[in-house]
Every structure is written in C-alpha cells, then in structure tokens.
C-alpha cells in the first residue's frame, strides 16, 4: 500500500506543498505546532487504511455531511487518504458482489481496518426492522466489528440512538455500543456531525495510527471539549443580558442571544461555535435559530425546542459573567452525572409549576 | 426462468432489495419485486409533541433530500393553524427549496447514478486529446438550452465554474484512475460488474468525461447548498420556524443573520448552481442519452410513467393563506399538480385530471393499502386516507429461508416495509419525470394559462426533443427520460433561484425586512382542534404531510412520500408500483448481473428512509418532559 507522501508525489505535489499541507492539518486537528514533524513522519510511512462504512437505521445525513468537508476535501480523503472499500451510499457495486467484497476486506485486513457506522441497529422483531442482504443489520454490525481495529460511531444515531430511538422508540433502536462491547468506539455525535469534525477524526486516526483522546462519554476531546455556549459569538450578548425575546424582534435583527427562545448552546458539547459549519461559514445560532442540542444524548426528548432550558442563571448585567462561567465549568467536569442531576431537578421544577 | 436477487441496492438512500424473474432466452424481465427493508416509525414518535417542533423530527426522515420534509411539515402546521408567512420568508424558503433540488439532482446523477453509465475501466482507454475535442463538441451541441435560461440579476461578470475541456485536464483524471487501479485498492469502485457488455456502448472518451466530472463535481457539490447554510445555519438539516424563517434581516448590522454580505454569499452560490447545471450536468446527460437512444435504441424502463403520473405543484410566487382552502394552488408558479394518463400515446391523446386544494382532503382520492406490506388493517382489501391511517406492524418473513435469513420474498403475501399509496385506487409514478409530463400536458392541451416557469419547462422539453430528434412521448417515459427530466428540473430550479433572489432584493429595498409572522406562535391562540395538509414537490416526487392538532399537541401525523409511491409493493388488485413496473419494462443481457435493471431503479433516485415510516392510531401516550426550573450548583 502507498504512503501519503507517495500518493502526494504521484499527484505531482512538491515536498514544500506537502509540508505546508502537513502543517495545516496539524492545526486542523487541534495539535500544537511542535507536532508537525510527527505528522510529517506519519504521512510518509502510513499506507491507506481500508474503511468499511455501514448503514443501519438512519437518514444518511452523516454521509451527506461528510462529502461537504472543505479542509480536507472529502474527495481527497476518500481517494487518497483512506481506501473506502464498502459504503452503501457510494460503492459502485451492489448486491452479492458488494457483500462478498465486504467479507473479503474483513478477512484480508483482519485487525487493520476501520469500521465506520452510520445509523443504529433496531433490536425489535429479531432485528428485522433493518435488513441488508436478507439478514438483520445487527448481525452485519457485529460481524464487521469483530476484525476492526477501531469503530467510529458517526452521528447521533450510532452514538446515542437519535430520532428513531426517541419515545416511544417503536423499533427498539439502540446505540452501537449496546451491541459492540469489546472494541474501542469513537463517538462523533451530531445530527449530523460537522463535516470537518468527521474528516478531522479520520485524519487523526490515519496519521497517528491511534484513536484520538476521548472524553468520559467516548467523544474526541478536541472537538467536543467545549459547550457551544462557551464559544458562541453571541455570548457577549448573553453576558450583557441582551436577548431575543421573540423570533424576528429587534434583538433578533441585532443578533442578540437566543437563550430565551430555547437555545441549547449552554448544555451542548460540540464545535459549532468555534469551527462553525461549511468551513466557518455559519452555524444554527448565526442563522437566528437556537441550538437544538443535536449532539447530545436524548436531545429529542429533552422537552419542546422553543422552551428555555433550566439551570442557567440569566445575567442582567455584565458583572455576573464570571459566575456563570464558573458554574459552566463545574457542569462540564461532571458529564453524565450532571445530566442525571439536571433531569432530577427538571422534574422537581415541573412539580413546582 | 431465473430468479435474481440484488440486495443491497447501493448508491441510494436507505435499504432496498429487488428480485426479478428473467426469461433467460430473451432476457425479458417477466416479474419483479421491490422491497423496502427498513422501518423507523417517525410519525409515531411525533405524536403528542409540540407542532412547532415537528419540522425538526420529520426533517430527519431524510438527510439526502434534507429539509424537504421540514418544509412539508411547516406547510401542514401552518395550513392547520391558518398562518400566512411574510413575503421574505416565502422567497427564502423557495431559495432553500430550489437549492435542494439542484444539489440533490446533481449528486444523484454524478455520484449515485453515473457509474451505471460510465466506468473507470473504460476511461483508461480514452485519448485525452480526443476527449477534450469531444467535450467541446458536447458543450456546443447540447448547451443550447442555456440560451433561453433567464438570468434575473445579470450580476455575474462571466461563468466561474466552467468545464476545463482541455487534454491536460482529462489526462490528470486518467492518471489518477490508472494509479488507483494499479494500487489494487479500488475503494468505492471495487467489485462492480465492470465487465458488463453495456459499458461498451459509449466511446471511451465519454467514459473519461463522465469519470472526470464525477470527481470534479464531488468537490463542487458542497457549494450548491450554501444558501441553506446561510439561511438555516447548517446543512444537512437546516433550521426553520413555524410562521416563517429564523434568519432575521438587517442591513445595518453585521451580527444579523441576513445582511448585504450574507446575501452576496447566497447569490454567488446560486450562480454556481446555474453554471454546474448549464455547463456540466445538462451537456453530460444529453450526450449519454443521445447515444443510448439513437445509436442503441435503448428505450427501457418507462414502466408506470407511460400509464399514469401524479404531482402536487410548488413554488408559491407569493405567500398564500392555506392549502386546503385552495389558495396555494392559485399562487404557485409550477403547475405540476394533477394526474396524467397514457402519455406514451402522445401529448394530444394523454388524459389529464386536475388535483388542487380540497382534493387532498377527499377520503376517496389518495389512499394507502397494505395487502403486500408488513402491516395489518382490519380490512386489507380497502385503502385508507392519510387522516384515517392505521399502522400495525405485521412482519411475516420470506417465502423461502428463515425469519432472519431470507432466500426469496413472498410475492403472493407480504414482502415490504413500504405501504402502497394509490390515487383513486390506481398506481402512479412521481418524480421529475412525472412533473415534466404533467406540466407539458397541461400547457399543450390548454388546461392552464402557463406561468414563466411552466413555459420554461415546455421549452426545455421541446428543445431536447429537437436535439434528440424524437417526440417527447418516445424519449420521456423511459429510464433515460427520467434521468434527463431530473437534469432539466435542476437547471430550471437554479435559474428560478435567481428569480427569488431578485424578489428578495426588491422587497428588502422597498423597506420590508419581516421574516416571521409570530401572531399565532403562542399555543393559547390555537383552536382546540385543527387539521392541515402540507404539500411540496420533493426531489424524488410529490410529498404530502397530513397533521391533526388537538389541544396544542400533534394528535395524528402522516406522510405519504415519493418513494412510497414509486417503491410500493403490489396492491389488492395486483398493480405494481413504479420500481417494479420499470423492471418489467426492461431486458437484461446478463441475468445474474442485471445492470439494466439497476440503472432503471437508480433513475428513480430511491430514498428508503423516506418511505419506511409508521402511523398508528393506537400510539402509546408519550410524556413530554418539560424543562423548567433552575439548577442550583
């Protein structure tokens, strides 16, 4: 298999441009400039890693997001950096031919391929709410995961369950870590995840031959380390107590904080605030809509979207900003535990009503 | 007779299985089954929720044609609550919708369908110099449609996205493919039937053009959706609100979601849409079509489109007061609403039936059947209107094999997770081909006073008929015609976006910056019970959402979606859906590698996530969790 440097060379890329590229992606992956030599070394020695990309219950928004990546362009990732050997959406082959090819890759690259999973397995009706090649998807998932080096859970479906697992979850859809227990799983949540987050995760794994550092919930820290609220360009309006009270009011035209019309930025961990979408072009809050929290577990069932979330003291003047920040940091450290507390408090809040 | 199974059908959205019975002597497909092999239940999930949230849930029905289910949902809820949206919101929604049409069709042709026609293996045999010469000839011959395409803004100095039809350009792509083949790691091109004789039907130079543009458009496609990212914050799954759009306008503030700079970003993307369809998509598909139709007499796959097509209409020129009350159909620019039968006999002999407003609430017109679907009805000989729909899952397994390991589906019993929608008990095809047939018939038979969009569509069809030297009834209702109609529609939508952009500029210039009507935002202003219909033309065909709201919550919600129409199993009368009919209307050269059938199926751009949903009259009570109160840390 070719190394990246060999791939670049046959593209006629100069050594100078190659090094420039390595420097850019080092930054993209959130690594210090001192890591550039390691990135270069990795790119000079690593072959193209085979990737199997399988689809359970889903809407294909993760694949669609992935192909929108600008740095790096998805075409470069798919054609030069990885070898995408199986993908329901992009593979030329169909039927038995494509299924046999999947089996061949598993055998030939046992222990050395990456399994990417979009969507999730439904467990109801013996798995027959999602059927591939006349077999339940859950079987394909287990079979494909067995020889994988690592598993990427693309999007909120694979990571948490997402829309089909929302109440009453008619198909008993479950996140993939409920059926794959013995493999490292990198959760890349979002409905869908940001394109550059997706390619960034792949780049990291391919170049360093290891999975990126994960938080307590299995998400890459570099992309899910901050709440959207912490990096939001409207945060200063929150701190100053300047809020949109109703859609399209004067505050909405001035781009003030959307917290009061239901923004979930304060409880959502993702890179929408700092990286934004489409290579920095925009993100939901910039378009005037609150964050619906699509990267968070169970976000569909966390109450109506346009109701303001509890637990966030609303500042009226700027002096309270530091206090708000301190509370946020404490909440961030707690992760799942805090989520539990928050739900309890929400319930008690409801009783008080 | 040979029974051939293709499962999974790749290069589509979701999971689909096809089974065909082939007469090995003639290659004729004698019978065919298509089965949706997934089921998610979103309509049950939205019950008892806040109707203002439902657009976000239903949007997740599909991430490929992302946003169209959101639009249908907003229209249904607004129809129920009698909300009229502001002018700007109407124009912005139309631009977001048009961008979807362009993107979805471009990606469908290049990335999901092209490999049925062109092969990287054949592209290696091409001479790059001859390829460049041919590419220029193609632009010259098939680019004539560009000449009557309107540019309402006239702002673009020159086309920025233009095919680089030079030997160097094609040589680079050929080198890339060669290395890929030599590396042994074929990636997405692996394991396909590249040895199928049909890949010999085009000259190697056309294969190289196709593969080069496949790769080139993979990079360009992302720019086509920029309007949704600006107005809706992201893509896939941009944001909307009931009553309008969220992106407030201010020409005085850089923090405003929409200002002069943001509008310039949108305008630039629309011109990219125009150039991608004018200079890449249209010439490429017409060049391939001309060779298939005129050199190889390849007219397969029309199927149901010859018999009956249905559409709902779209592009409200100005805000309307409702859909049920008939105002929507008075305001639309694109009159694809109606049913046309027997188009293959010629446009004069085709039969036309109108569909508007009240027809969508008539329990006799649109109904769904489950005789061959894995659901239970009290009486399965009868269909149900969406407002009365029942879904009770009833998985019965295959004909041969076990419950979880199939050999063959049961053609006499139930065999799909898709229901069978019918119009007055009859099967219909939906999609760009259906819409183009309907508009063409309505205008030519004089049923309507055509709008500029209707006239543009007629002009496109007449021009293509002249280029191909074939009458519309011959080339349109075929696999090739379905693929051409999609390209024409993408081109129409791109140019129509320039029209909406002009209207948006003019309206803001006139001093109107309103984007949302919030009068009925508060549920206390709603009636105790309300019913609504939301219609649109999704990339894959006519889409309808039906909602019943009671006490501020969704009491029942149902979607009849394009792939349910096209991918439906048989109904009680044994009538096939459009996928199945198209296969039966096809001959295959190599039965165990039915490329021709796959090509026909792909020409519908199947979306299985869209078609496999659930409605239920007996849904469990869903407790809504209110998030209130304050956390004391």
Automatic annotation (TrEMBL), chain A:
GO biological-process terms attached to the record: anaerobic respiration
Cofactor(s) demanded: [4Fe-4S] cluster
Keywords linked to the UniProt accession: 3Fe-4S, 4Fe-4S, Cell membrane, Iron, Iron-sulfur, Membrane, Metal-binding, Oxidoreductase, Signal
Binding site for [4Fe-4S] cluster 2: 229, 232, 257, 263
Residues covered by the NADH:ubiquinone oxidoreductase-like 20kDa subunit domain: 59-204
Main location: membrane
Keyword Cell membrane on entry: yes
Record-linked Pfam families: NiFe_hyd_SSU_C (PF14720), Oxidored_q6 (PF01058)
The protein, known as: Hydrogenase small subunit
Organism of this sequence: Aquifex aeolicus (strain VF5)
Species lineage: Bacteria, Pseudomonadati, Aquificota, Aquificia, Aquificales
TrEMBL record, chain B:
Molecular function terms, GO-annotated: ferredoxin hydrogenase activity; nickel cation binding
Binding annotation for Fe cation: 65, 610
Cellular component per GO, a single term: cell envelope
Cofactor: Fe cation; Ni(2+)
Broad class of the protein's primary localization: other
Stated family: Belongs to the [NiFe]/[NiFeSe] hydrogenase large subunit family.
Descriptive protein name: Hydrogenase large subunit
Lineage of source species: Bacteria, Pseudomonadati, Aquificota, Aquificia, Aquificales
Gene: mbhL1
């Amino acid at each position: 298999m070719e190394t990246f440097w060999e791939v670049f060379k046959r593209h006629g890329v100069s050594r100078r441009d190659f090094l420039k590229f390595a420097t850019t992606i080092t930054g993209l992956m959130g690594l210090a400039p001192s890591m550039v030599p390691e990135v270069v070394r990795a790119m000079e020695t690593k072959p193209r890693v085979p990737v199997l990309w399988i689809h359970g219950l889903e809407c294909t928004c993760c694949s669609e997001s992935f192909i929108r990546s600008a740095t790096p362009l998805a075409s470069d990732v798919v054609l030069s950096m990885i070898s995408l050997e199986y993908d329901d959406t992009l593979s030329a082959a169909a039927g038995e031919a494509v299924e046999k090819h999947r089996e061949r890759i598993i055998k030939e690259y046992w222990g050395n391929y990456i399994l990417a999973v979009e969507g999730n397995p439904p467990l109801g009706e013996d798995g027959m709410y999602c059927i591939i090649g006349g077999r339940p998807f859950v079987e394909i998932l287990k079979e494909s995961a067995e020889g994988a080096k690592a598993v990427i859970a693309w999007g909120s479906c694979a990571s948490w369950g997402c829309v089909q697992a929302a109440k009453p979850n008619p198909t008993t859809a479950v996140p993939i870590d409920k059926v794959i227990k013995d493999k490292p799983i990198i959760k890349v949540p979002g409905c869908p995840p940001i394109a550059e987050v997706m390619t960034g995760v792949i780049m990291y794994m391919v170049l360093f031959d290891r999975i990126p550092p994960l938080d307590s919930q299995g998400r890459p820290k570099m992309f899910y380390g901050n709440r959207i609220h912490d990096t939001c360009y409207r945060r200063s309006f929150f701190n100053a107590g300047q809020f949109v009270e109703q859609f399209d009011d004067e505050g909405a035209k001035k781009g003030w904080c959307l917290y009061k019309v239901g923004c979930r930025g304060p409880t959502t961990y993702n890179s929408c605030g700092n990286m934004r979408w489409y290579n920095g072009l925009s993100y939901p809050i910039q378009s005037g809509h609150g964050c619906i929290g699509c990267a968070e577990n169970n976000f569909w069932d966390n109450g109506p979207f346009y109701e303001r979330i509890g637990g966030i003291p609303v500042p009226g003047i700027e002096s309270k900003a530091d206090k708000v920040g301190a509370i946020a940091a404490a909440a961030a450290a707690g992760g799942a535990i805090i989520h539990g507390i928050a739900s309890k408090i929400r319930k008690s809040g409801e009783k008080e009503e | 007779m040979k029974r051939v199974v293709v499962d999974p059908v790749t290069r589509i959205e979701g999971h689909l299985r096809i089974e065909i019975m082939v007469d090995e002597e003639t290659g004729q497909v004698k019978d065919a089954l298509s089965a949706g092999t997934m089921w998610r239940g979103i309509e049950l999930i939205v019950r008892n929720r806040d109707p203002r949230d439902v657009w976000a849930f239903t949007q997740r029905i599909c991430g490929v044609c992302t946003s169209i289910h959101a639009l249908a949902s907003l229209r249904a809820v607004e129809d129920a609550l009698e909300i009229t949206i502001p002018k700007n919101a109407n124009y912005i929604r139309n631009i977001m919708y048009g961008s979807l049409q362009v993107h979805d069709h471009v990606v469908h042709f290049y990335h999901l369908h092209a490999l049925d026609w062109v092969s990287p293996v054949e592209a290696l045999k091409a001479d790059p110099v001859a390829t460049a010469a041919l590419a220029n000839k193609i632009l010259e011959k098939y680019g004539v449609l560009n000449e009557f395409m309107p540019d309402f803004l006239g702002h673009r100095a020159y086309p920025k996205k233009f095919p680089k039809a030079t030997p160097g350009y094609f040589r680079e792509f050929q080198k890339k493919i060669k290395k890929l083949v030599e590396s042994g790691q074929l990636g997405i091109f692996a394991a396909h039937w590249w040895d199928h004789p049909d890949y010999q039907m085009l000259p190697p130079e056309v294969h190289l053009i196709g593969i080069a543009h496949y790769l080139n458009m993979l990079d360009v496609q992302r720019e086509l959706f920029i309007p949704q990212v600006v107005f809706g914050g992201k893509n896939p799954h941009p944001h909307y609100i009931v009553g309008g759009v969220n992106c407030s306008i201010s020409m005085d503030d850089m923090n405003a979601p929409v200002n002069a700079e943001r509008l310039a970003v949108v305008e630039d993307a629309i011109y990219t849409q125009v150039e991608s369809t004018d200079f890449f998509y249209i010439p490429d598909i017409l060049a391939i079509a001309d060779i298939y139709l005129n050199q190889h007499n390849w007219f397969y796959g029309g199927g149901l489109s010859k018999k009956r097509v249905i559409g709902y209409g779209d592009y409200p020129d100005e805000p309307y007061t409702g859909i049920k009350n008939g105002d929507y159909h008075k305001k639309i620019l694109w009159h694809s609403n109606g049913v046309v039968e027997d188009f293959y006999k010629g446009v004069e002999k085709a039969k036309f039936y109108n569909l508007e407003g009240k027809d969508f609430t008539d329990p006799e017109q649109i109904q769904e059947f489950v005789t061959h679907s894995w659901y239970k009805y009290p009486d399965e000989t009868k269909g149900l209107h969406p407002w009365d729909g029942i879904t009770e899952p009833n998985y019965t397994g295959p004909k041969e094999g076990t419950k979880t390991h199939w050999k063959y589906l049961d053609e006499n019993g139930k065999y799909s997770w898709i229901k069978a929608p019918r119009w007055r008990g009859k099967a219909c095809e939906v999609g760009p081909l259906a819409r183009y047939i309907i508009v063409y018939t309505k205008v030519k038979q004089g049923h309507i006073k055509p709008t500029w969009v209707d006239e543009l569509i007629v002009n496109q069809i007449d021009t293509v008929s002249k280029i191909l030297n074939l009458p519309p009834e011959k080339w349109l209702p075929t696999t090739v015609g379905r693929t051409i109609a999609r390209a024409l529609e993408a081109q129409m939508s791109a140019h129509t976006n320039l029209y909406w952009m002009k209207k948006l500029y003019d309206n803001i210039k006139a001093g109107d910056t309103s984007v949302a009507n919030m009068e009925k935002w508060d549920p206390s202003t709603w009636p105790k019970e309300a019913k609504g219909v939301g219609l649109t033309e999704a990339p894959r065909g006519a889409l309808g959402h039906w909602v019943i709201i009671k006490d501020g919550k969704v009491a029942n919600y149902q979607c009849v979606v394009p792939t349910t129409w096209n991918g439906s199993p048989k109904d009680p009368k044994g009538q096939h859906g459009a996928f199945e009919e198209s296969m039966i209307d096809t001959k295959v050269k190599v039965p165990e590698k039915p490329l021709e059938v796959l090509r026909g199926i792909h020409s519908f751009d199947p979306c299985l996530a869209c078609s496999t949903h659930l409605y239920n009259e007996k849904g469990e009570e869903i407790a809504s969790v209110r998030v209130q109160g304050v956390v004391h840390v």
